[in-house]
Design brief:
290 residues, alpha/beta, Rossmann fold, 2 domains, seven-stranded mixed beta sheet, 9 helices, 14 strands
Length: 290
């Protein structure tokens, strides 16, 4: 099984005629994702990888059932594209773009909450469900295999490294979600964990974390309150980051004592969440938990 998206999910790609979108539309289709339509103003009538293109999402919905949208559009126009999809009735949006203005993200997330929709990202590689052969975004599928671990991550490339180690060790995944590397994102760690908690095929949850922000501390509070019963383990990037220096993602900014490596380690320790010292150490912890 999977969370958020699976083999039944019908997908539209906004901005499908761009070079990156064309490439990843083909890769998603080859993996098994049901992409039924694309949208870009002025491109109606074109066909990309066998997928019909429409001027708008609303126009595409006249011809297809659509459950989710992957937005391959520049950060400066993400707000317009996301609002178009939400207003048309799409309830799962994957926003891969970097450099989305923070105010635009806030507006998108607030509108999604009003509609009861889910936003993944911005600044995310997307999500992948190996058992369902479905991915939304540009997650490299060769590193993933079906299994019992749910993964939520703030880092794209670090996810690929750690998951490839799990796969090589014979430990597969139910769904892997890149929540995004910006200071404000739609789907956070706590909300992702709540979805994994309900998924009968997810036996344990791996968090791939970074310094900055407070999502890890929020997870610890949920665990201490008994809201998450499944075992959780983690890796935190940034142990050796210079104090006071901004590094990595925009979401990895530390303000005062909040978001520091010490704060996150203390929070996880208090909640009984084991933390791997290196990416390689994740394998040993996973084996003990399973």
């Amino acid at each position: 099984m999977s969370i958020l998206a699976g083999s039944h999910t019908k997908v539209i790609v906004q901005g499908i005629t761009g070079s990156a979108a064309r490439l990843h539309t083909k890769v998603m289709l080859d993996y098994g994702t049901q992409i039924v339509a694309g949208a870009r103003p002025g491109a109606a009538g074109e066909v990309v990888c066998g997928v019909p293109v429409y001027n708008t999402v609303e126009e595409a919905l006249l011809h297809h059932q659509i459950d989710a949208s992957v937005l391959f559009v520049p950060g400066r126009v993400v707000k317009n594209a996301a609002e178009e999809a939400l207003d048309a009735g799409i309830r799962l949006l994957v926003i891969v773009a970097e450099r989305v203005p923070l105010h635009d993200t806030i507006t998108i997330v607030e509108k999604a909450e009003e509609y009861g929709a889910t936003i993944i990202g911005p600044n995310t590689p997307g999500l992948i469900s190996p058992p369902e052969h479905t991915k939304l975004g540009f997650v490299p599928s060769q590193y993933y295999t079906p299994g019992p671990i749910g993964v939520a991550s703030r880092s794209g490339t670090l996810t690929y490294e750690i998951v490839s180690r799990l796969t090589s060790a014979g430990i597969g995944q139910t769904t892997c979600v890149g929540v995004g590397g910006d200071p404000i994102v739609g789907l956070s760690f706590p909300r992702t964990l709540a979805l994994f908690e309900k998924d009968k095929d997810t036996d344990a949850i791996l968090l791939i974390c970074e310094i900055g922000g407070t999502m890890e501390e929020e997870v610890s509070e949920l665990v201490k309150k008994g809201k998450i019963s499944k075992p959780i383990f983690a890796y935190i990037a940034g142990r050796t980051a210079p104090v006071g220096k901004r590094v990595g993602h925009a979401g990895a900014i530390i303000e005062g004592n909040r978001g520091t490596i010490e704060s996150k380690l203390q929070a996880f320790e208090g909640a009984g969440i084991p933390v791997a010292f290196t990416p390689a150490d994740v394998i040993g912890i996973a084996r003990k938990i399973l």
